[in-house]
Amino acid sequence: MREFLGALALQGGYNTTLVMVGAALLGAAGGGVGAFALLRRRSLASDAMSHATLPGIVLAFMIGHAVLGEGRFVWLLLMGAALTAGLGLWVTTLIAARTRLREDAAIGIVLSTFFAAGVVLLTVVQSLNLPGQAGLQGYLLGSTAGMLRAEAELIAAAAAVVAGAVFALRNLFIVTAFDEGFAAARGVNTVRLDFALLILVLAVVVIGLKAAGVVLVIALTIIPPVTARLWTDRARDMALIAAGLGAAGAYVGAGLSATVPNLPTGAVIVLVQFAVFALSLALAPRRGLVAAAVRRARLVREIKSGRWRPASAEGGA
Amino acid sequence: MNEFLQFSLVPMAMAALAAIACALPGNFLLLRGQSLVGDAVSHVVLPGVVIGFLISGGASAVWIMAGAAMAAVIAAAAFEAVRRAARVEAGAAMGVVFTAMFALGVLLLEQSNARSVHLDVEHALYGNLESHIWLAAENWAALARAETWRAMPAEAATLAGVAAALSLLVALFFKELRLVSFDPDFARSTGMPTGVVQFAVVLASALAAVAAFSAVGSILVIAMFVCPPAAARLMTDDLARQVWLSAGVGAASAVIGFLAAGHAPLWLGFQSTVSAAGMIAVVSGLFVLGAAMFGARRASRA
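Above: the input entities. Below: the structure tokens describing the complete assembly.
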């Protein structure tokens, strides 16, 4: 416990602190970009992308071994991940546009077959018995234990760049989310902007692989934005709240995972973010379950006492 | 040949049965734009499976199924609460619930590993199809004896029962399923309880996913909900034909994928095999690719 509180106060040593700050930047980037993806109804596109990273990671590992004699280069693995995730995104779009199948089916097809191809390649790597293959398992569920300093620095820097890009594009994202026609009339290239949004989601997914893992990384782009949605109706505030909650949840989760044994990083970050969501679901001022119950009780009392008027001052609340 | 009976026949049959059990309800999910329900169900059952595993202290099928069913019910309730309170699209609400529950399952797994219970995340993702061996089937003559059949892995019988029950239900309620899938408004106007039918489809999907999950792993379950129905949908407009085609594509993927994973590497001179569940899912994806390029009904209707 003392160790955990120390880590929260940035007293956990250089590496732990670096991992926690990196996770916070990643959480902020994921929450911010996820808020706009939610407004554009693209939340689950990231699911296809994240699962599609697995074959890229394993292929990059194998190529690294064949060409460089060593497979565990984080930049190489992440490049492979980005390539197959991009391919997965392209195939998803292609299936939805060119065949009669809809986007949900396209996402399901891509995520299951790409991930399965990654699993097959993983067993090939196992049978070749290449050194360093144990590190690959860490990408499935995320693990910051044993992360090299240079790796953590690379991830933190990349997350900062993505967070900055989301912040710079925020006004364009907002206007496009609410009125695509108006945005286009104002000269915004909405097709290119949607593409930019998906590339930023892809960047968060790839950068987050090491910390949160293939299966859980999409939670970083989904849970904080939906939580923020409970607290506000304004898009600008929603993106800011999502980024803040994302950063806080990832920071606390990474700290917990670094100081308590047997807590897998990705799962803990997701559960901390979900705990914040559950609290918000109960307590949020207008959307929350408690507020709704109080409203209903008050209404019932007013009706019973005969004071209720159809168009009361509370309107349609 | 005897090795085939002992080591390959049962896993291959189980993969085919799991494929059929998931592909059948997958057809109706596909038509209603709910293909990702299979994805969600196979993630949310993980904490239930782990708890069932821990309570029973081993791989007791009944406890695991009960845990998985409980988890699916909790997830369905949580999904409705999230969707209504946050007023977000179904996909986002599903994303919140299934990532959180999968994370909980992973956490329980890691914590239980400290107590040396044998179950791991890789098992949950890929299943352990190859471990379902049937040592009693020493030769063809042994198949004639009753005790050989009693020694068959129990999960194979469960899967066969679920696949048979789902086939029967689809055949019995085919007219209702077709109406609700294509024209829910008209179906409602004829007095049909469309909500009940739709809920039954989701329930049947959960049953198929839970039955298949512990045998073949979540990745194969997800693939079999989507890929065989999608491939069949690209080949025909006739729903009855689509349903049977999807079962055929699923079963064919299972057989081809299993042979490609378990035997092809050895024929090619490699020492070990690759993941059968993964290979089967890849083969089902190749069926979709083929159907998307050559299927008679592949084009999008503008």
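Note for the figure: Residues 235 and 294 of chain B are 8 Å apart (CA to CA).
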